[in-house]
Amino acid sequence: xxxxxxxxxxxxxxxxxxxxxxxxxxxxxxxxxxxxxxxxxxxxxxxxxxxxxxxxxxxxxxxxxxxxxxxxxxxxxxxxxxxxxxxxxxxxxxxxxxxxxxxxxxxxxxxxxxxxxxxxxxxxxxxxxxxxxxxxxxxxxxxxxxxxxxxxxxxxxxxxxxxxxxxxxxxxxxxxxxxxxxxxxxxxxxxxxxxxxxxxxxxxxxxxxxxxxxxxxxx
Length: 219
Fold this sequence. Notes:
Layout: H1 6-16, H2 18-21, E1 22-24, E2 30-32, E3 40-43, E4 50-51, H3 53-68, H4 82-88, H5 94-110, E5 116-117, H6 119-128, E6 133-137, H7 142-151, E7 160-162, H8 173-181, E8 188-192, H9 195-203, E9 211-213
Parallel strand pairs: 3-6, 3-8, 6-7, 8-9
Antiparallel strand pairs: 1-2, 4-5
């Protein structure tokens, strides 16, 4: 039985853009990809369910300032990551780097008020959590993911949560999730905002027409 309705269609359409929401058929016909109650729905966290970029930057900048006495500038077009820390401070020692990361995680808790939910995607999560198996799939470590979900009241809308595990080597979060859940890729609809992760999902067999690209340019 199909579970989607016109109201939800409009939410998804606005959230992700038409080209990835429809499957292009022969000629100019478009077929809406219906989600049935047999599908698993994979939701990314950062940038998809919740915009955490500014809170993440503030936490890193405060940690770097405290540990190294260095000021860093905010770039709204680039997510500040552990890799960025090593790029802007190439001579940082492992010990100092770990201290920065530890302080960043501590500061993040007080910066949670700077995170914002994506209303359209959260609405989809809440509705489908009643009929489908909804799965959090994130490269975020468990502690930060859990406090982010709890802050926004989202923790109870998931059938399963899959966090970053180390070491994963070259295994993508999508390959890891499919292996853990023991399900075929064709049974998955994925909500994702990162282009690299979208390609990783395609690489493990999730149909591109079932990857709903949140905030990603369709051009």
